[in-house]
Amino acid sequence: MRIITVFFVWLCVSISACATGSDPLSDEDTAGGLKQALTQSANIAVDKLGVENGFLENPKVKIPLPGSLQKVEGLMRTLGMSKYADGLIVTMNHAAETAAAEAKPLLMDAVQEMSVDDARAILTGGNDGATQYFRNTTSEALTQKFLPIVKNATDQAGLVKKYNEFAGKGAKFGLVAEKNANIENYVTQKTLDGLYLMMAEEERAIRNDPMGQGSKLLQRVFGSLK
Predict the structure, then answer these.
(1) CA–CA distance, 189 with 146 (Å, rounded to integer)
(2) What is the dihedral of CA 118, 120, 121, 126, to 10 degrees?
(3) ∠80-86-90 over CA atoms, to 5°?
(4) 202 with 187: CB under 8 angstroms?
(5) pLDDT at position 74
C-alpha cells in the first residue's frame, strides 16, 4: 500500500510539472515579450541609421534619386555634372540620418500603447508583424515630425530648390510621382522605409532564433511559435 501511495504522489507531481511546462502564454507574458521585441528592434534601427552615414553607407537603405530622375542623373554624369548629382544624394541621406535620430521617443510611445489584442495579433502576424504594427501606428506621427527636420537639413543645400523645380515639372507630365515632386516628402518617406526595414530585420532575427536572445521572456514568447 505504501509503495502504491508513493507512486501515486510521484505521478501527481510529474503530471503537475508537465502541465506547468506546457501552460499557454499568459496575456501578460505575450504583451511583455512583444513590447520587449519592439523596443529592441526600434533601438537597433535608430542606432544604426540615426548616425552620420547611417543611410549613406548602407546599401539597403541609401536614398537614391527617384527612379524617373535616375535617367536624368545618368545624363548629368555623362555631361560632367556628377558633382551636382552626388551632392544631392549626399544631402538627402544626411537629412534622413538627422531625422531618424529623432524617431525613438515616438516609437517608444507606440510600444507603451500596445494592447493585449495587438500583442496577440503581432505574435502570429508573420516575420514582420511587429514592424507592420509600428508602420500602422507611427508612420503618420513620424512623417509630421520628420518633415520639418528634413526641410531644415535640405534648405541648407542650394541643390534643393533645383530638385523641387525639376521634379515638380516632371510630376506634371507623369514622369515623377506626385509625392516625390518635393524633396522633403521624398526623403521623409525614404527615412521611414529605412527605419521599418531595419526593424523588420531585427524582428526576423528574434523570430528565427529566439533561443539566441539574451532575454528569457523573448525566448519563451517567440520560442512558443517554433
Answers:
(1) 9
(2) 130
(3) 170
(4) no
(5) 67
Report whether 100 contacts 194 (CB < 8 A): yes
**What averages of pLDDT result for each successive group of 10 residues across the chain (226 residues)?**
40 36 73 91 95 97 80 66 76 92 92 88 85 90 92 73 64 61 84 95 90 88 80
Q: Which residue ranges make up each domain of the chain? A: 52-223
156 neighbors 98 (Cβ within 8 angstroms): no
For residue 43, the model assigns a pLDDT of: 95
pLDDT at 25: 75
Cell digits of residue 142: 513620424
For cell 508513493, what's the residue?
A: 6
For the chain, list the strands marked E by DSSP: none
Contacts of 137 (CB under 8 A, 6+ apart): 110, 113
Query: Is the CB of residue 111 less than 8 Å from the CB of residue 35?
Result: yes
Would you tell me how many other CB atoms lie within 10 Å of the CB of residue 160?
Answer: 21
Give the three cell numbers for residue 63: 536614398
pLDDT for 6 equals: 36
- Are 135 and 38 in contact, with CB atoms under 8 Å apart? no
